[in-house]
Design goal:
heterodimer; A: alpha/beta; Rossmann fold; 3 domains; 5-stranded parallel beta sheet; two-stranded antiparallel sheet; 15 helices; B: alpha/beta; two-stranded antiparallel ribbon; 20 helices; about 10% strand; globular; VWA domain-containing protein (chain B); vWFA_dom_sf (chain B); Uncharacterised_CoxE (chain B)
Amino acid sequence: MTWFDSPAQAADRLTKAGYLADAATATTAFLAGALEKPLLLEGPAGVGKTELAKAVARATGAGLVRLQCYEGLDEARALYEWNYKKQLLRIQAQTGASDGVDWDQTHDDIFTEEFLLTRPLLTAIRRDEPTVLLIDEVDKTDIEVEGLLLEVLSDFQVTIPELGTVAATRRPYVVLTSNASRELSEAVKRRCLYLHLDYPDAQREREILQAQVPDLDDKIAEQLVATVGRLRELELKKAPSIAESVDWARTLIALEIRDLDEKAIAETLGAVLKHNSDQARAIKELRLVSTTSTTGRRK
Amino acid sequence: MTSGLLDRHLSFIEALRGAGLSVSLAEDLDSVAALGAVGWGEREHVRDVLAATLVKKQAQRTTFDALFDVYFPALVGDGVRAGSTAEGGDEAAESADAPGVRDNAAALQAFRDQLAEALESNDQQRLRQLAAQMVGTFGAMPGRGPGLSSWSAYTALQRVAPQELIDRIVAGLLGEAGDEARETEVRRLANRRVGAFTTMVEDDARRRIAEEKGPDHVADVAIRPSIDKLAFTAARRTDLDEMRRQIFPLARRLATRLTKEHHAHRRGALDFRRTVRASIATGGVPLTTHHRPKRPHRTDLVVLCDVSGSVANFAQFTLLFVFALREVFQSMRAFTFIDHVHEVTEHLQPGSDPVEVLEKLAAASSHAALWGRTNYGRAFAKFEEQHLDALGPKTTLLILGDARSNYSDLEDATLRRLAGAVRRSYWLNPEPESSWGAGDSAARTYREIVSMVECRNLTQLQEFVHDLAL
């Protein structure tokens, strides 16, 4: 199966799936399918890295298998594990029933499919249906796990000593996301296509807002995008991302604010800026009413 | 792929490698396969495809874009000038024979009017045309000797001086709205547009030179290193702003990395009781072992930094960077000096705004000078006299500066005493190691007392702080 026919078609189908992709994103998403190479997405938090993987799954009707990475993730959680409790039970049951069974028989029995617990990576490889494999926040793992990923990412196969090598019947569409909190190793990067997702331009951000929050009227969407754009220019600890813009839009709707004037911005600033010093800076730079942060807290 | 295209592609890859991007053969092959899948039809597609397959670090993207424009230019020669306007077309045809003719005061005035208009409306297409026109008309340097570039963005920018148009643009933009309160905002907008236009002009000059001399020449000469490899001492104003923006993300990344490594080293001695307790669940077989946590050791940091003109940028960055990582250290005290010592710890409060911190530090630097000539010896002596209580057996002393002491008394005995009073001491020097000890640099003398580390760019700074905090 081909995932997308052309970059234009990729953009089109992603839009239908609710993800507004720019040209670079669409081209790279198409390439990842055409070359059957994993796609490494980097960028600040909240710009839609994980969402892109989900959108690809929705757009192509594929199943999504997700591996959430965290510190201390190991082979047993990522790849596969033998269900040793069940194996123990099996051995005990056998010795209890009859004591004439030889060890070889038992050994062959307990290393079979029945006792194998498949984890996301193996699941994705063994699936017969089209699959999108999302390896989320890959920078959170330890370096050793990257070594584990190499075999999966380049050959789409997993070697289980007791069972042999399991190769993918159908190559999954692999998406890795990273917040770049750590440099990934060259070996992993070399095997992937790379795309840096950044904050969108004003036009696209407005489209995203209108797609995500349909109740938002045009005027307020425009004001909101302009304000967020200005906030991103300030030197903040955490610049607001798309996720925060969407949150803000929802906040404004919930509070039934029809016009985003200085007072309204000051009152709802907490939805976009999550650091106290950032809020103080924004108030100073945007010349908002300076009492806001205190009144906001008292409410 | 025709052979010409292949050659160009290969020399492009070569140039990327020359600029410090590690492009492997596998990635090269990928890029060609990817181009086969997408096709050469559209320039932006080609750029996206090459970026996806060849560039695996966002910091290198600017270098990539600059090189891409040089090797795969959007236009050749004067290209757009002929097609800009009907009137412009005629003149372009004329000037093609004698490029010097059109460069006169009247033409300059007319061009500036056009430019102001285009900047006001922010018409990207038109601005790009104007940038090409500007270099073609005002940046031409005909008749220079062989081996010298015949186009200069610098000359063009000096002649046209788009910076001086800012007031006009602001007035124009405000004229529509007529709102005084928006002035600062509009001014910032105008500044940004002019900045973007300046970049366009520089790009165009590069493109023209590349056309004349071959892209390899430009790649060697005109492409700047990416921001994390750029030397502090060679940074321009805009680079400094960019670097400052990088500091907090960098610090956050480093902090995560440090916590992770602390965790990895945390496994202490076997906790026998907990291991046995856990093994009961698996029939007495200790499948998982438990360990006692290790006590983290944290560093007391005393930073002593030279804030004289020559190294001010470097000192500020390092101070900010260390400050951003405050939570990794047990405590931190900072002193600035030129020929006198001044404590600035109070400005480095946790949670305070980095921009304000920098402003305060800049203001405080006047306290660090008596006569204003850097004098390391005097600074050390004053430090020992006034702030010796800051140092203790657990302290790490960090000195930031280029060790250029204007041939004054070095007081190396004092420094030796200071270094003896602390656990570890380091000296970060923003100059390349090759020039240590040249001229009035006392680096040779001081490095025998304190271990001196070369720290010229953000990458080196990050590596050093990482080792320091671990």
